[in-house]
Amino acid sequence: MGWENYHLHQLITGTCFEEKTFYAPPWDDSFCDEEFSARQRDETRIKARTILPSVGNSITYEYDLGDCWEHILSLERVLLVDPQEHWLPWCIDGVHACSPEDVGGTDGYGRFLEAIADPAHQDHAAMVEWGADFDPKRLDRKAVNIALWWWAKARGRHRKLRPDIIDR
After folding, report:
1. Residue 116 confidence (pLDDT) above 90
2. Which of 59, 94, 77 is nearest to 165 (CA)?
3. Residue 123 belongs to domain spanning
């Protein structure tokens, strides 16, 4: 996992500005913008089923508001489990790795990928060293699910890892 969660982020529902609600950390001051503040909610007080109520619904996740990494999160299916087991949310699939932290948004990421792919590129050595063992095609699903476990633990919601993700 390349991101360390030290930039501002938000979940966004709605399509046009008038319909949008922004779910952000409770300490986010919304840049002191009154119109934005009126649409902002505390992300720690919302449940996924509230903002993604049914299969087919989507929300936008924006990370690093300066670089504007936007991701569409879609609810594709709901799997029923024994409510006594307290299973965690988990990643069942995905495509590619997330970019390294502070790579410079989509433009910077494009330049980074070009540099690491081309040994003749003037920035190749520096970017390979900076990016360490980064593989843009590798999604580490186990790391994602461990991160989800730690996220849940920080909120007192951890119980146990799903048996089907422990060895992945």
Report:
1. yes
2. 94
3. 101-132
